[in-house]
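Hello K.,

You asked for the raw outputs rather than the summary table, so here they are, unedited. I folded two proteins back to back in the same session to keep the settings identical. This is the first:
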Amino acid sequence: MTEADHVARDTATRALSLIEAHERICSERQGHIIQNLSELKRGMEGLYRRFWSVAVGVIALLISACGGLIYLILARVP
């Protein structure tokens, strides 16, 4: 093998090593991103459930207030 072949092989080996290190870092980051997205999804599901609980509570409160007002109005009629 010539000197140029050795230089090319060393350069290729160094490049492969850098690419593998980069792939490990990207893989680790991707794992963290996927984990954070799943946590975010769970948080959004909880928020969604709370939103509907509050909405149902407000609707029930408004219906009961309307019912109470109707009762008061009808109770005054002789």
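The second followed immediately with the same parameters:
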Amino acid sequence: MCCKVIRIVELEKPAGVWCRHASPGHGCTIYADRPTPCQVFRCAWLDQPETSEALKPDRTKVVLASNDTKLIAHCDPADPTAWRREPMYSFLKRQAWPGAGPPRPVLVVAGRRIWLITAAADHDLGEVDGAQSFHVEPGLDGKPIVRLTGHEAEAHWEAGPPLR
């Protein structure tokens, strides 16, 4: 599923279409020579052993990409509401406010549309084209700010509880 939903610039592969080197159910046909982004990418389902089998990307149609500062749920554009189904939805909400630790921004990407998931609400941020990028940072009041950059425009959205 990651070979479909993730954009790979080095292969001129847009997000949402199968990589020409992917053999669904079998793997990558250029595995030994795959580009660096493919070599270093590890979905959260593989990288975090505590992640439930029920969240496996081929079951949920969602690939989870995680780091210390945010979680991005990449949905199969053929099933853009997959992130709203259980158990994925509850998992994303828990990640937005993970109990004792500080909340971290949770973004959902389905095709060109992006949502910011917070404990309080789901915020539809609209569509982004392939030449734009986004990042999340805490605002002055601690609430997350999503910045969209690219071309000649910059936009930002503020939402949710403070990031502590």
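The chain is about 15% helix and 30% strand.

Happy to rerun anything if the numbers look odd on your end.

Regards,
P.
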